[in-house]
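Exercise 7. Predict the joint structure of the components listed below.
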Amino acid sequence: MAVVSSPKLQARRERSRPVQERATAKRSRRRTEQLVVNAILLVITLVFLVPLAWLLLASVNGTADLRVRMPDPVTFDNFHRVLNSDITYRPILNGLILCGGATALCVVCAVLAAYPLSRYESRYKRPFLLTILFTTGLPITAVMVPVYAMYVQVNLIDTMYGTILFLGSSALPFAIWLTKNFMDGVPLVLEEAAWTDGASSLQTLRRVVLPLMWPGLTVVTIFTFLSMWGNFFVPFFLLLSPDQLPASVSILNFFSSRGTVDYGQLAAFSLLYSAPVVVLYAVMSKVLGGSSALGGALKG
Amino acid sequence: MTATYGPGAGTVPRPPGTLSTTARTRRTLVRGLPVVPSVVLMLLFLAGPIAYCVYYAFTDMRLTGASTTHFVGFDNFTKAFGDSNFRNAVMLTLMFTVLSSIIGQNVLGLFLAALMRSASRPVRSAVSTVVVISWVLPEVVAAYLLYAFFRREGELNAILHVLHLPQQNWLFTLPIVAVSLANVWRGTAFSMLVYSAALQEIPAEITEAAEVDGAGRWKRLWHITLPMIRRSIGTNLMLNTLQTLSVFGLIFVMTRGGPGNRSETLPLYMYEQAFQDSLIGYGTAVALMLLMVGALFSVLYLRLLRTEV
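Solution:
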């Protein structure tokens, strides 16, 4: 375009050349920089995308193998095959009972514990919080062998409620920590009013504090549920009967019980099992206002 | 009761002597009541097993015939350090942690977070969506996806074939590298989110001032960006390491610790000893060592956060 511009314009451009040139040089450098950055990021995204693409494509492929390829033929057969009580419904239901029960237990206890920790001063508070934070760092995998031995002795092994109790308790330290941080953000003024009106502290918690911190409570609940839904080793160690296993463990059957692995069905099942996670995560980051806010919150 | 639940009693300092010692103790007890369910659960199901762990580690407990459990002192530990399989597991755990968490997730996460700042908006949201989805998928699903990716007939070799690069059976020749890369795929999002938040907090004026003073890209990164986010780096490294130390499902599904024991990190070694060979006592001793390493990192993490509690 610049080539066909009029001589007059050309002359003016010549005069202001140094300033303009520097500005355009800077602008074009910015633009090339952005291009390069975009290109690098897109390549990394593609690498990250390959396994996800396999999941999506293989699930609707009638002849799926380990390659990422266009479905041939496109079919929902894989889904039809896995959507029955043995493969999908029962494990998903078991997962819901297990994770739902443990989440409820954990969140109720965490809210109760967070209230005094957030509202009162006490000399036990700091050591307690430090212990809680310390516990969040411990590798729970390491405790599983003694938990197993303990559960065998007290007859809790292979029971749903036993597993719920352990799942809920092991998630408690982090849930208390997170809930307390969210509760700290609720101003005291309204509670003081409720107190003067003679409300007890549990009433205040239920009527004043919880309604004000529902976004935080949603995040704690979803986060706790998600970490349990994806948890493999706790049910793997503590549950033995096949009809009690949640989806995170029953998925192993795709390999052991049949000689050849049907990758299409494996992909379809994985998709069904993962779908709630992606949805709940989207809800959670919406509540928090962007995913980077989640990073900040999780950091503590 | 009104004295017990006085408005804002915790935040407004009360003049000393308004309450007698017994009244104050009672007040602390009543206020602490809601903490009790959590404390009971954590004592029973977390502190209990840890105490058990310490006890079992010094016994020869087995899964079969629990009545013959004896106290054996430090036998399990001497046995472990004399066992080449245990030393192998320690080395592999170190490799796995350094490769996947300290180098992989941490550096890639920072790199992505830094680049995303100067990327265009659609690219930025594409990157974060894809990386975050890899992170939120359940562990077992992630493990199967990467198993498919690294298999001999998998997509990685197909890509290498197109690029005319040498192919190999990754899960057989380099199993620990394959599971480490799998952990990078799965865990980078966390570092990316932490660093994105940290980079946003650096005031733009500081970077601009350095740019005007003629500091190049690398100088700015080294002298300004990194020192300003060093707390986040510390926190992130610590959390990543703790998380990576306890990875079990990912490796179990991808390689079962094999071939042989060439990807058998400590959690898998512990599992094999305790359940396959039913040596609960010995497996617990390994667990205790793992727990102690975790505790050490956890204390370091607390010191980093010290001012924030």
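Discussion. Residues 83-299 of chain A form a domain with the MetI-like fold fold (CATH 1.10.3720.10).
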